[in-house]
Amino acid sequence: MSSFLRRVGTTYIPVTDPELSSTWYQEKLGAIENFRNDEKAILDLANQSVFLVKAKEGETSNFIDVNGNPHFAMTFEVDGYDQLNQLRDDLLTKEVNVGEIEDRGHPGNNFVFYDIDGNAFDVWSELSPTFKEMHGV
Fold first, then answer.
1. pLDDT of residue 129
2. Looking at 16-119, which runs of residues are DSSP E strands?
3. How far is 96 from 93, CA to CA, in rounded Å?
4. Angle at the Cα of 28 (from 25 to 51), degrees rounded to 5?
5. pTM of the prediction?
6. Digits of tens for pLDDT over the chain (137 positions)?
7. How many other C-beta atoms can be found within 10 angstroms of the C-beta atom of residue 107?
8. What is the fold of 60-137?
9. Cα-to-chain-centroid distance, residue 87
10. Quick one: 50 exposed, middle or buried, by C-beta within 10 A (0-12, 13-18, 19+)?
């Protein structure tokens, strides 16, 4: 049986100040703002819609795994190790909190970065085959 689900269309990220966070995502990650009010900002980022939703201070999308380690809830993909390195260098230049490049024992490499509210995001150096096929990459 094939799945009716085709893609993830929207991701919701908790933030303390939608206006400030929207500016951060635009300046640091190249997001495009489509809408904003006091409670949320709606952005285009990485081929999906991202809602920055005003939440209680200290709330993040991160979680603690079974081993007690903090974990991100989302992984972005770039096309190869060179782009991974370039993105990491760019984020460092923009004074984003960025971790080291890691070899996690599977194809490709990763690093983690954090937004101004402490939401963790992973970046992986491998584009999925389905994405490559759909977008002619």
1. 74
2. 32-36, 40-45, 48-54, 63-64, 70-71, 75-77, 97-98, 110-114
3. 8
4. 10
5. 0.91
6. 578 888 889 999 999 999 999 999 999 999 999 999 999 999 999 999 999 999 999 999 999 999 999 999 999 999 999 999 999 999 999 999 999 999 888 889 999 999 999 999 999 998 777 777 777 77
7. 8
8. 2,3-Dihydroxybiphenyl 1,2-Dioxygenase; domain 1 (3.10.180)
9. 12
10. buried
Q: Which two tokens stand for residue 100?
A: 């080291």
Would you list the domain boundaries of the chain? 9-56, 60-137
Query: Whole-number mean pLDDT of the chain?
Result: 94
- CATH T-level assignment (fold) for domain 9-56: 3.30.720
How far is the C-alpha of 21 from the C-alpha of 106, rounded, in Å? 32
